[in-house]
Amino acid sequence: MSKKLTSRAEDYSKWYNELVVKADLAENSAVRGCMVIKPYGYAIWEKMQAELDRMFKETGHQNAYFPLFVPKSLFEAEEKNAEGFAKECAVVTHYRLQNDPDNKGKLRVDPAAKLEEELVVRPTSEAIIWNTYKGWIQSYRDLPLLINQWANVVRWEMRTRLFLRTAEFLWQEGHTAHATKTEALDEAKLMNNVYATFVENFMAIPVVQGVKTESERFAGADETYCIEALMQDGKALQAGTSHFLGQNFAKAFDVKFTSKEGKQDHVWATSWGVSTRLMGALIMTHSDDKGLVLPPNLAPNQVVIVPIYKTEEQLAEITEVVNGIMKDLRSKHITVKFDNRTTYRPGAKFAQHELQGVPLRIAIGPKDLENGTVELARRDTLTKEIIALDALTEKVEGLMTEIQETLFKKALDYRTEHITEVDTFDEFKTVLEGKGGFISAHWDGTMETEDKIKEITKATIRCIPLEGDVKEGLCVYSGKPSKRRVLFAKAY
Predict the structure, then answer these.
(1) Where are the alpha helices (DSSP H) in 65-146?
(2) Residue 169's closest CA among 155, 185, 188, 189?
(3) Total-model pTM
(4) What does the pLDDT average to over 92-115?
């Protein structure tokens, strides 16, 4: 199969799909809408997971695990949540198969094995978790309860795309209980900020923090905080959400606590999550027509070393030097791979590592051994330079930081250039169809106007930014008074 990708300018969607497959990140499975995450893709997800898990634990959270199946009656307990996810649910109705006597070797559902109560395959876990919390919380001494789980969920999407929208995906979901409204709101804001810090510092993707409008809120939430990122094609991507659930789930499942004053009250709740959708964000923010471009903080291999040789003796000499290089780099906590495969020529190795986004590539051959040098190639800038061996470790260590910062700045510059203020609906439509990106515009605060703009343009309100222009104006569509500008965009 050819490694050359369709160009982004020619067909962005095709470029993305080809890149995911050809870079060995993931592939479609035998199950409609589900994916197989391949080892290289999963290695990136593991690095995301490890960093987020560290950040969660530093803010006092613990990991637990809850069942995949949710009894339908529990799922229905919180009305808004049930309605919000109903059309995406997969449901288990039977628990056993049997041989088909009319079709030897085939299996069919055993009609006698019908479940007394149908089970929903979790699209999210609020219902099963809050039913569990009822037994865990009795007193203010049990609060706050700060729990996270790493899990898979199922949402029966009709239109799927690897990482961005699949019927099953991996994620983490935090679920916390608090004694007061203020504590719960502070938690929701804190975790949204944790997400923003991770995505900016680790993934090198700038984000806008904000709150969702009522129609875009999580089903069952009183407020949804979010981080919104901008992809290279000018579309937005919701990279993470954190929800203030009020007392909605506590009331639905009758989760109460006794306060210090001896009074009983329902607890206050949050939930928050990010998923393997972050992999899609990573690909579409930094990558180019040659393949992936990975920030060093996420790359499974930050450095790859490719030997250039003709004889086994030359390879042995190069290997001895490379072993010293690897020891020095690993002492600086830099992940390095020596690609000494004999089944591929150097050019093929270069192409593979370029396609897979390895931040730095070192090439070393007999002449380099004579000169005490190596060739160092950067994936982000596609530039090469000759480096003295005795200066290599310090150079690579510095480049890890430089590449990370360069990728963030490039993405930030793109986003800055693609946030456009408009004051008329004609301007709105012109920018949306031509330039793309975030459109900063006044909105009158009504769902009617929000729905009408979406119907006409396919653009949605991505968020009401936590920071930014709070000056009053006139709604870009209705002309009615507006309290502040919000961000619109077409989105994934």
Answers:
(1) 72-75, 79-85, 126-136
(2) 155
(3) 0.95
(4) 92
